[in-house]
Amino acid sequence: MVVKKLKTGISGLDKVFKGGVREKSALLISGGPGTGKSIFAMHFLIAGAKAGEPGMAILYDVDKDEYLDYADTLGLPVRKYVDEKKIFLVKQPLLVRKTPNLAVPLELMRKRKIKRVVLDSLTMFSYVHVTEDRQYRSEIVNFLDRMNGVTLLATSEARFLNIDEANFNPEDFLFDGVVYLTKVRKEAEFERVLHVSKMRGQDHLINLVPFFIDKGGIKVYPDQIPFAVVGWEPPTTGFAK
Ligand SMILES: Nc1ncnc2c1ncn2[C@@H]1O[C@H](COP(=O)(O)OP(=O)(O)OP(=O)(O)O)[C@@H](O)[C@H]1O
Ligand SMILES: [Mg+2]
Q: Edge-to-edge, what's the strand order for the sheet holding 209-214?
């Protein structure tokens, strides 16, 4: 079977994914605050719009205007594609209810033949819709089930500062692919790095890859070694064990 891979729209990243993200897979972008999760997701939607794959963002964290203004400040053309009806934004109400009301996004997906869906963020989705621990996995599994047939990218808060001390969350096991975004420090300098933890059914790079966020969004440098790890000694615990 030939697996179709979708372009992420992020310069350098498709090399990390050895071609792109497997069509109809579910990818989790996990990281601390301000690590680039939402911007990553914007690129993914824009790449879809350019490739004739309509996209939809299900927003929990911010409202539509904030989302569009943010994209404008980065010079990312989300607004243009929203105007052209190639990207659709759905703001979900922050009403605590046990079962999420996905009627609006699901109807849009059907009507507009949506191929790429962004959930920003899975963390807020869980805060709003998960009222007991036992329900956590099942609510995410239900959501993934509803998103069957599209390529999904969800953002998620990770509670680690140091990637070697990352604690896995239940959702890391439920998604097909997981990418961690973080920063590494060398003396007074911080550097953004990403690490693909897993991609079910496809090959990918597993090293720490440096990236930058600037006007124009994210740029990934898969052929470079993060300067912050040059001369670094592996810890005795964690990933490098
Ligand atoms: N115009 C810009 N130029 C340079 N860097 C920027 C610009 N806009 C945002 N950034 C960087 O991107 C970071 C935010 O990226 P993003 O919104 O994707 O983070 P996030 O991981 O979604 O954060 P949160 O968990 O708070 O939602 C900012 O903290 C800043 O470092
Ligand atoms: Mg965000």
A: 87-91, 55-59, 116-120, 151-157, 26-31, 177-186, 189-199, 209-214, 217-220
CATH number for the domain spanning 200: value is 3.40.50.300
Residue 235 domain-assigned (yes or no): no
Residue range 108-134, pLDDT digits in tens: 999 999 999 999 999 999 998 887 877
Q: How far is the CA of 85 from the centre of ligand 2 (A)?
A: 23
Owner of token pair 């097909």: 176
The structural domain count of the chain equals: 1
The whole-model pTM stands at 0.93
Closest ligand to residue 69's CA: 1
Task: Give the residue numbers spanning the domain of 178.
Answer: 5-229
Q: Does a structural domain hold residue 240?
A: no
Give residue 29 CA to ligand 1 midpoint distance, Å. 14
CA-based Rg of the chain, rounded to a whole angstrom? 17
Could you tell me if residue 45 is inside a domain?
yes
What pLDDT digit, counting tens, does each position of 153-174 carry? 999 999 876 777 777 888 999 9
**Centroid of chain to Cα 71:** 16
Give the residues surrounding ligand 1 with Cβ less than 6 Å away.
Answer: 31, 33-39, 61, 73-74, 155, 157, 213-215
